[in-house]
Amino acid sequence: MTTIQGIKQVRGDITVPGDKSISHRAVMFSALAEGTTTIEGFLPGADCLSTISCFRKLGITIEQEGDRVRVEGKGWYGLTEPSEILDIGNSGTTIRLMMGILSTQPFHSVLIGDESIARRPMKRVTGPLRRMGADIAGRNNGEYTPLSVRGGKLTGIEYRSPVSSAQVKSAVLLAGLAAEGETTVYEPEVSRDHTERMLRSFGVDVESFNGGVRVRGGQSLQSPGHIQVPGDISSAAFPLVAAVIIPGSHIVVRNVGVNPTRSGIIDVLREMGADLTLDNEREVNGEPVADIEVKYAPLKGIEIGGAIIPRLIDEIPVIAVLATQAEGTTVIKDAAELKVKETNRIDTIVAELSKMGARIEPTEDGMIVYGRTPLRGAVCDSHGDHRIGMAAAIAGLAASGETIIQNADSINVSFPGFFTTLRQISE
Ligand code: S3P
Question: Where is the active site (predicted)?
């Protein structure tokens, strides 16, 4: 349980922990590559530590201290059959990408996770992986954990994913790297492309084109030696939103990944009227990085839907907070994927913000927020979902009185030190 007091303003010059999606991939690809890789800026949050723990059980030597990691890659077929169950905790990215990798390995593995993972749909990956030839068993015919995989020889496929999901795209492409022939994944809207970018930095030929991505089987990964992980825009979003909604605020978040497939929050902030600038734009290991500066400004409600949704899917809980402080109505649509995240985020964010006096309604594929509404402190619950806990905390900073966040521990999944950062910027 953690208590948040409403504050006068947010000020500061900060960094946020490393990007979660990039940290997972850095460990996975380094383990599968020939040679040793050092990773800096790694996110030492619970999810990425689950990825490290799985690869250790698969026989890979990994040293980790804070945000520094050293992985001794043994090549694609250097993994060994695990004698223990692979427990991926709360991490959807770990289990779905691991399913792709383990489908290519000539041994048997079993994956489990926590109660939230046990409710999340896995057929979106087990379906195409079975089509490629993987032998997968799981509860409800491969929809839910526990899942077991007996990997082996796969054949490349053309896969048209019904959902825009980087986890699905990545699982199929990773399996495709060790499959016979070519593997192509098409998705309705482009999802985050960290897998494609990082595979290229490991010397893999990846063809991205309008609507899809293709790889040739039989390619090996060569360690680039060193990977620098940028700050996570999904974590930066929380202090940025706090600054935009609390009068008098001014904040700089340095060294943030601004990959266009992730930066929908920047577009939304600007369209709503935020005073936001990107400075020091550069490229680090094939990923665009910048410092983001924002100042308080009056906001207006907007409509958010279509191709932008995968570019900001993880930021919707905090965008809902933002919308409570914008003049007029904000409509979020085409975001039914929110229902299958760590919690049903349509229900959980509507429930928590309603307790604080927000006028917010759930819809089938998103929500409608009526602004501008003063928020008041309340007893909120993360529901075990890190981003719901952090969104409620940001609402608490902008609210009058005191807000209690129950089950705040879940925030360690993606943003260890979150409350320290909030204290640092609160005035
Ligand atoms: C992620 C992809 C997204 C995102 C998740 C991380 C990734 O999930 O919500 O936090 O690292 O590939 P989906 O692939 O289910 O959209």
Answer: 314
Asked whether residue 300 falls in the same domain as residue 412, the answer is: yes
Is 114 among the catalytic positions? no
* 381 assigned to a ligand binding site: no
φ, ψ at 301 (rounded to 5°): -70, 150
| Residues 54, 120 within the same domain | yes
Residue with CA at minimum distance from ligand 1 atom 11: 21
Retrieve residue 382's tokens: 């993360």
pLDDT digits (tens, 9 = 90+) for 388-422: 999 999 999 999 999 999 999 999 999 999 999 99
Are 356 and 399 within 8 A, CB to CB?
A: yes
Domain count across the chain: 2
- State how far the Cα of 258 lies from the Cα of 233, in Å rounded to an integer: 7
| Cα(279) to centroid(ligand 1), Å | 27
Does the Cβ of 313 fall within 6 Å of ligand 1?
Answer: yes
Q: Which of 177, 211, 228 is the last residue of a domain?
A: 228
Considering only CA atoms, which of 99, 91, 93, 92 is closest in space to residue 128?
99
Same domain, 336 and 218: no
pLDDT digits (tens, 9 = 90+) for 13-61: 999 999 999 999 999 999 999 999 999 999 999 999 999 999 999 999 9
pTM over 0.90: yes
